[in-house]
Structures are given as C-alpha cells and as structure tokens.
C-alpha cells in the first residue's frame, strides 16, 4: 500500500472589496440573480454568475421542485445556459452567492458534488480551467483556481 496526500491551494479574502472590480462585478451579478431563485421548500436562495472569455456574464439560480431530485443548483443552470447561449466561449470564472430568503447574511456556498462534476466537464470541454468564487462558513471569500482543484477524484467515462 502507498499513502498519498492531496493539497489544495486557494485564496481567502475577508471582504469582496479585497478582490478586483471584475470579481466584484461578477459577485454583484450572482447576488442579483439570486432574487430569481425558485426555492419555496428550502428558502435557500442561490445565484451563480459566469464570466465568459469575451467578458459576457451569464447567470443562473437554483430551481427547486416538490420532487426534490428534479431541482437544479444555480451553478448548473448557469453553466448549462452558457453551454446553450455561448457554446464556444470558454469560462473565465464563476461566482456563487447564497442566502436564506429574507436575510442579507451570506451563507456558505461551495459547489455540491454534482456541480463540481459539471464544472469538470466544462473544464474538459473548453480545455482550460476557470476560477470559482464562493463564501465559506466564516464569511470569507474563497477563490479556487480551477475545478480540478476542488474535485481531484471525479467520474471519468
């Protein structure tokens, strides 16, 4: 048996104002998109915004369904929308914002396993990674360099 270690490097910021204007613009787009979340069951509103290589921003929100597995996360709705609207444009970065309905405080919002797998598919499709920005449980802004950093062991067909 051989034991290995995986280490993930990431950046942590105490405030969105510590990031460049490009990140702040993307964050605001995700925050705005969150208003259109359909989340009557969890009251957990999530918005995602993707900046494409040409500077265009495409957003998505979580969409819940009474049959819970039928819903989709904000990251996936944004990525699939980008895949339809701009199929040949590479992703530069994605921002993910979450709050409880009626609250302004940010919630921890790392991508779920399903979203990480879809991110990896787009990384493979575009042959390049893209940054992922979200908040942690301590209200820090976490910036990951690329999907493979978040999900080193993924499903491969």
TrEMBL record:
SUPFAM superfamilies given in the database record: Cytidine deaminase-like (SSF53927)
Gene3D superfamilies: Cytidine Deaminase, domain 2
GO BP annotations listed: nucleobase-containing small molecule metabolic process; pyrimidine-containing compound metabolic process
Catalysed transformations (reactions): cytidine + H2O + H(+) = uridine + NH4(+); 2'-deoxycytidine + H2O + H(+) = 2'-deoxyuridine + NH4(+)
Record flagged with keyword Transmembrane: no
Residues at the catalytic site: 75
PROSITE patterns associated with the record: CYT_DCMP_DEAMINASES_1 (PS00903), CYT_DCMP_DEAMINASES_2 (PS51747)
InterPro entries the UniProt entry points to: APOBEC/CMP_deaminase_Zn-bd, CMP_dCMP_dom, Cyt/Deoxycyt_deaminase, Cyt_deam_tetra, Cytidine_deaminase-like
Protein name per the record: Cytidine deaminase
Record's GO cellular component terms: cytosol
Cited function: This enzyme scavenges exogenous and endogenous cytidine and 2'-deoxycytidine for UMP synthesis.
Domain CMP/dCMP-type deaminase: 21-157
Cofactor: Zn(2+)
Native species: Marivirga arenosa
Keywords on record: Hydrolase, Metal-binding, Zinc
Enzyme class: hydrolase
Family: Belongs to the cytidine and deoxycytidylate deaminase family.
NCBIfam families the UniProt entry points to: cyt_deam_tetra, PRK05578.1
Keyword tRNA processing: no
